[in-house]
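A common beginner's mistake is to predict each chain separately and then try to dock the pieces by hand. The better habit, illustrated here, is to supply every component at once so that their relative placement is modeled jointly.
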Amino acid sequence: MANLPSNQTDIELPHPRHPVDAARALAPRRPATWVLSIVTVVVAAQIVNLLLTNPNFEWDVVGQYLNSETVLQGVVMTLFLTVTAMTIGLVLGGVLAVCKLSDSALLRALASSYIWFFRGTPQLVQLIFWFNIGLLVPVLSIGIPFGPTFASIESNTLVTPLLAAIVGLGLHDAAYQAEIYRAGLISVDEGQLEAAQALGMKPVRVFFRIQLPQAMRFIVPPTFNSIIALVKGTSLVSVIGGAELLFSVKEIYSQTYQTVPLLIVASIWYLFITTVLNGVQFFIERHYGRGSSRNGSSSIVARFFDRRAAERNLNRGMES
Amino acid sequence: MTEPILRISGLRKHFSGVEVLKGIDLEVHVGETVAILGSSGSGKSTLLRCVNCLEVASGGSIWVGEELMGYRQESKGSVRRLTESQIAVQRRNVGMVFQNFNLFPHWSVLQNIADGPRSILKLSKADAIERSMTLLTRVGLADRANAYPRQLSGGQQQRVAIARALALEPALLLFDEPTSALDPENVSEVTDVMAALAASGATMLVVTHELGFARAAADRVVFMDGGVILEQGSPAEVFDHSQQPRTREFLRKTLV
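With all components supplied together, the output reads:
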């Protein structure tokens, strides 16, 4: 008791001199942000200056070849390879993911082995391997296993650079896509599946109507990652003589020696394709974000489309 | 008394060696509301989940009406497990309401309710919507038909979940701790709906910690402990004149 202050009025309470209103608060001082911003602007200005003033870029040559016939043919081949390999990857990847999640130990082992092999060896090695499949299996034939054959063809006749590229890229992509699907499918809450089962939905319906749509929110972003990697991965096909974009510009600069501007031509086209894909991703993500408050997009464009979608949802509510 | 719609006999369930249900015998008659009480770990939720085959029983049998749940009797007297698709057909006669609602977040409230009548009972779209709106009116949420589940409070979501279970007109309704995940202020809106259902003659098996609801709405109260049914009777018998010390201890601790 003796330690207590004898006079209570001696204690100084923290007491604001003026009434405080958070509405009039200033932004916090952030000196580090300012320094970093200035450094960033200076570096960016240097890069732009380099791009515009360095004559070695030869921008006139870039413009000359950007839509030349050879380059456009390469772009079409790159798109074709991307779409076919992606289709194989999306379909076969789905089958592999379902196998890996199935009750059958045999199917699980098969899918795991596939993924182990095709994820574990370099894509370039796989492409060269498929191109040279004739060394391993000289003749391909259709018939009864271990029995008579009905038709056969020489591997080297069948396996063109194009087919080797489609098979090589597609099978490799499927291994990655399978894991993307699986990650999405197992992220769906167990309670969702139980509720669907309790309503008497059969397994196929539970999968396609409840599990997959909810998994899509987790599947779409990494899938586009993988598709964009695939677009660029098609450039590996130039090694086995597939006439895609990189092969086309190589054909030109091996004659004209304008290496830098033609690589820029290729880069511009790759960037164009991946930019379009980014846009597609935005719309697909928004579609599967229904019923979720967090869709991660808050740009002006996103907000414009979100408002349009909200209006549509008012009408869609009555459909089931 | 009417014939039993649910007959559980000798039901046993173990998870990797641990015995959770040690021989349960229970009958529920048409129109009856049975509340299952017991502390956590007593096996009451597992019992409920065995009824519609969300858990596979380790022994014993469960009949819902004429259906042996999860199995088919063969001519030689043997029983064979059904496929998941065949079990799905059996489940259509048993509705279930979960602790965590488990509404489908990518569907609107109306879609959540109307999908069953539409895709499973093959009702026309107009009939499915009409039935859904009637049920939504019954749980007091007709104005939220176009909302998505996460736009609703917990109590509202659970009322939608009840409407969704009712939409298939099941012979038996299972409730697995339907108010345990709710804020205290939202509990009564759900128990009110359940009490109205019980009064309207629905057959209900309810695992709950809401003793007030059990006393007011249940025809029979079952007390489970350690994987067995320790005691059962009318609410008055179990709450006021329990024969078992364990039941009295549970009630004393829960009613504080």
